[in-house]
């Protein structure tokens, strides 16, 4: 079973935090983390634009891959996004950092992560040839 985990950028401390996604009654989002000697569960507010879900996969260097990550594959930059029921790599334009536009089709600009996993004979949950850049 795939691990459901999120990350978000804690602007107060200037660092990425990892855990469960939460939303309070005011509509603010946060990540629930364990803190301190007794591992108290606390919710830290994060920048909503930074929230990304763990894909269940790692790159070839064992770095976890999250929605929103910029990755490199076959010498090109891609953004990881969730669409049409799947995590996928969508090519970005190096000059503008804009995502390629697609409509329910697979082409050289869009790679479902599951396709890369099966076609490349990847081991465990690691994607061979994919490197997390940011």
Automatic annotation (TrEMBL):
<protein>
    <recommendedName>
        <fullName>YopX protein domain-containing protein</fullName>
    </recommendedName>
</protein>
<feature type="domain" description="YopX protein">
    <location>
        <begin position="5"/>
        <end position="93"/>
    </location>
</feature>
<dbReference type="Pfam" id="PF09643">
    <property type="entry name" value="YopX"/>
</dbReference>
<dbReference type="InterPro" id="IPR023385">
    <property type="entry name" value="YopX-like_C"/>
</dbReference>
<dbReference type="InterPro" id="IPR019096">
    <property type="entry name" value="YopX_protein"/>
</dbReference>
């Amino acid at each position: 079973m795939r691990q459901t985990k999120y990350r978000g950028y804690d602007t107060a401390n200037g660092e990425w935090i990892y855990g469960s996604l939460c939303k309070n009654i005011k509509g603010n989002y946060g990540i629930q983390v364990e803190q301190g000697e007794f591992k108290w569960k606390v919710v830290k507010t994060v920048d909503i634009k930074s929230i990304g879900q763990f894909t269940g996969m790692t790159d070839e260097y064992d770095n976890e891959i999250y929605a929103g990550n910029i990755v490199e594959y076959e010498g090109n930059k891609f953004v990881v996004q969730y669409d049409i029921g799947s995590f996928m790599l969508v090519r970005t334009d190096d000059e503008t950092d804009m995502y390629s536009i697609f409509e329910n089709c697979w082409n050289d600009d869009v790679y479902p992560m599951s396709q890369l996993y099966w076609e490349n004979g990847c081991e465990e949950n690691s994607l061979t040839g994919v490197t997390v850049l940011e």
